[in-house]
Amino acid sequence: MKVKWQGVYPALTTKFKKSGKLDLDMFAKNVKAQIKAGVDGLIIGGSLGEASTLSHKEKLKLLKASRTLTKGKIPVIVNIAERTTKTAIQVAQDAEARGADGLMVLPPMQYRATDQEVVDYFKDIAKSTSLPIMIYNNPVDYKIEVTLDMMEELLELKNIQAIKESTRDISNVTRLVNRFGQDRLKILCGVDTLAMEELLMGAHGWVAGLVDAFPAETVAIYRLVKAGKIEEALKIYRWFLPILELDISPQLVQNIKLAESMTGIGTEHVRLPRKPLEGKERKRVVAILEEGLKNRPKLPDYLKL
Fold this sequence. Notes:
Helix content: 40-55%
CATH superfamily: Aldolase class I
Number of helices: 12
CATH topology: TIM Barrel
CATH class: Alpha Beta
Number of strands: 8
């Protein structure tokens, strides 16, 4: 199906059993909650999905499960985070062959590539598939920035269509719009704590993290903003912000999985070397989540917007 690159796209966590095996039953429970809340697509195998711990076979299992659950109603996007161009191309081609609707692609991992190496890496992947692609721009965590000039070269390829904007510089949304317009390049905010601000500045969508635990609240904010109901959206966003800040942490996976377990649509199980939160940090995160759950806002009928 066609990917519109607008709306809310959960960066799904990968559900594991205590043994470390995939927990497809809990994965299905979470995806069903996302669909019920009105999300616009799913992203599997991302950083939040513990991509570095997943085998290629496991990623394809998640793709198959996602396609079964979505029934073609919303697109399923497969993340690519690889060390070599050859492996990245293989992932792209296998994802396309097995029914993925699009790709999210990180810069080459392992070392800090030059600008030209990054551009060529993205272009080689794009040329290997007909799937639409969203470039992940996160210089804070990955130390590589996709500049406006680099993006202009990448947009020579028609299937490069969107950018996950995670520079943490809200002004970059305006720079992108000024350079490329509102139609050629779709902009999706990739930082939970800046989402409403970037939507107001013209971002088309939100690749969200805490949506994994709070799908309805996340979609409500997006739809209210796009409907011009700013005060209603702001009320929810202000309640949500202390929880959203759990996304901008080296322990974001553990934080969000703890949140999923407390909202009943996930578990805390992670794969080594990650371990569940413990001690003072666990108490701190639990307190934030308990406060949020105690004061969880009543949502308007946002699905009709």
